Amino acid sequence: MSDQKESKSIIGGLLRRVFLISAIVMAISVVIAIALQSKQAAISIGSGWVIGFVSFFVLVMTVMKSFSGEHVKSVGWAIVGILKLGVLGGVLWLLITRGHVEPFSFMGGFSILVFALIIEGVRLNCGKADAI
In which domain, by residue range, is 121 found? Predict the structure, then answer.
């Protein structure tokens, strides 16, 4: 049971750090977009970031629930993962085809999470895991 608590603590710390890093990068990107592009570009960046982070959060929770306990609970959580991809695809299709977001700015916001994960991976690899 302590292994589960420890892994939840590690994952919780990872999620907090990735959220913090990506939120800072997103805020800077939105300010730059407002100054240099348009309000619509800033909204698109923010929307992409929110959808990207929610998707990542659901992925992390799905993986954690799938491998918790003594037995792998893959079928039910695999269905959740497939449903997540379907919902994500539907939301992306609606936002982009209806013109609610600018596709390039939206993907920039969506990609912020990737950069935050790279930064966190480099930080952990450099042995500074206890810094935050």
Answer: 2-125
